[in-house]
Fold each of these.
Amino acid sequence: MKISKYNATDYLKTDEDIKEYLNASFETGDSKLIARSLGDVAKIKGLSKIARATKLDRSSLYTSLTEQGDPKLSTVTKLIEIFGLSFSINTKVD
């Protein structure tokens, strides 16, 4: 039996899928997961296109959007805007 590596991008087919994926990532509060999730969506949307739109170097953007990366808040806000999304702050539910 062949087991393939899980790749979230295989399941993100619609804008709604992407929105829910990013919401779930942000809800965890895990900065590494958030960075990786933003990177997954950037790959789906086209990393080179996203790099041009954010005026960031493609390789720097790629590196910052991994579990080892730590994107600046300005990068995160640019990405969210380019993805056609916006932030919303809610009261934490325990």
Amino acid sequence: METTSIVQVVLLLVLILVSVGVSDRMNKDLRQRNPEVKPYQWGYYLGIQGLIGSSLLAICGLLLILLHHPVHGRRSNLDVEQGLLCILYSFAVFSSSLFVIKRTKWGKWALIALTILSLNPVVWLVNLLYIPRRWKEFSDRARTPRMGIPAESLGGSEGPHSVRSAARNLSARSGTTHAGPEGSPSALINKKVKTLDDAVVIYAGCDLKSAVVASPSQGTEIDLGAALMVEGREWVEATLPGGERGYALGPNVRSHCS
């Protein structure tokens, strides 16, 4: 194997390993902040690989322009044209990768663009299945409202009693009842559900930074209480069979309980 080929293989392996490591870390951070969302490691992997790969390609394109040499006594524009094409292609990949990593409302379109620009049939096939499964999540993220509980409703405290009081106040103002369609906050109130897996997380308060009370295993029965919205997130009171009490995210409960 030639030296150039060995260098290319090593660079490719380094790119893959770095992308896998960084994407795994980013996915864990995402799931910790938003347990209700689906894993996004593949999206992060494509984005990180796109950022690094396009940056390296842009550097190569720039070197082609700066270091092009005369052919038969005259300067050739071939290297310059190839260099410009590399830079333009790199810019498109870099931009798409950035939007994919940020998971903004444009992320789904950026993921489609990045899939096409990858020029990789394997990525095309995988994303043909992957993108439809994340499409609704991108759309929901784009139209998620920012809601909150007024400070006076919390009474300056974040304890269980003040949160329940805030939930009652919010329900009274919004006219929420205990009966409602599946998927609405009221559909979770005062219900007993059973976990389908171990993805449900019970927090000490209505805050993702609060302590984790428990992560019940599959088949655990959970008694649900009042539901409320805090900073745009839907929370519901949760009591485990052992008596532990806390708060779980509504979407997390709906997705992983029956």
